[in-house]
Amino acid sequence: MTEADKVVLQDAQEQEKCDAEQNGKAMIEIVNLTKKFGDLLVLDDITETIYEGEKVVVIGPSGGGKSTFLRCLNVLEDPTSGQIFFEGVDLADTRVNINTHRQKMGMVFQQFNLFPNLTVKKNITLAPIKIGKENLRKAKFNNAVAPLYNKWFDKFGDKYNQSVDKKRELLRNKVETLKSELEPVISDWEQTKVVTEVAGKSVVSYDKELTKKKQAMTAKLERAERKLSHTVHAEQKSVVELPYESVKAIKEAANENAERLLKRIGLEAKADVYPSTLSGGQKQRVAIVRALAMNPKVMLFDEPTSALDPEMVGEVLDLIKQVADEGMTMVIVTHEMGFARKVADRVVFMEAGEILEDAKKDEFFNSPRSERAQQFLSKILSH
To answer: Which of 25, 163, 176, 230 is 20 to 30 Å apart from 288, CA to CA?
Structure first.
């Protein structure tokens, strides 16, 4: 990305942030997201915000990092560095139960990912029943231990938390010391940077010994920060309301919801058949309502029509648009430009692991700012 492109992108993101802040709260915040596979840099220091109710379409040439970016949002791919906040919770924090938050983020893949050994209906009810059972078990356990735990807390809680305060102070001092020791090492390491041209591409290298030293010290700092984040105060436990009275009630609710969703997409007659008997379009529609069965707050779509025959694309895109019109927050990776124009509030253009442009859809399609986006659209829209 050129310096001019960076200025354009920064201005666009600032304007988008001002506009979006007037319309709703941040649902997903991505801060300095970087992803590497070995030495291959796939995502390069991405910062982006998805606001509640927004439909953000991610487009760009193949191999630009779009799908990896999407998979990082619900940590199906672990970021190499950076932070991903979902409803204010840092999903990279090791204290966070990532599966709890994934339940709120529906994901639809290119290849449907239906379980071939389960009927259509059971594909839809599998996750709600499993999660429902787990939530019921946790609630019952919490309510059983809460009285005993609170007796302990009333007697020893203050003393325990005082010891936590002392331990946190020691850990904070350790973290600050490690940061001050690491800073000059990073400075020395950056000064060893060498850029060479290999097969027309720029290859960056650094002093190997300083690289090893930096990595070891960084790992030590991260361990100390992780230990600090895990050292927390004890709190009283509250008795919680049971989500369901019984496992039977969980199954009944999941089955009723599955039947309602299948009726919505006109496939109620297919409830007891296996995925192998469905067309590609039918499989993808089932995959979408399977994600909706968990009542997600965000839907992530990874090129949902790329594996479909052209005649089946329309029925899938129509369903996605219906869900969008109901106010669902969405992030959609797609090559369907016509669909992007219909459903998007905002378009993010990616190439080589970078966001080159971030604009409202009309601005992007009518007057893209970056030269690369202009080239891309001229080729795509001319066919």
So the answer is: 25
CATH of the domain at 303: 3.40.50.300
Position 87 in a domain: yes
**Residue 39 to residue 61: CA distance in whole angstroms:** 21
Beta bridge partners of 83: 31
Q: For residues 221 and 196, what is the distance between their CA atoms, to the nearest angstrom? A: 31
The tokens for 372 are 């690369």
pTM for this model (two decimals): 0.77
Residue 260 lies in a domain: no
Phi and psi (nearest 5°) for 109? Answer: -100, 170
Number of domains, the chain = 2
| Pairing, β 26-37 against β 40-51 | antiparallel
| Domain of residue 17, residue span | 3-97+296-312+328-380
CB neighbours of 323 closer than 8 A, spacing ≥ 6? 288, 292, 299, 330
Q: Which residues partner with 106 through β-bridges? A: 299
Tens digits of per-residue pLDDT, 88-123? 998 877 778 888 888 899 999 988 899 999 999 999
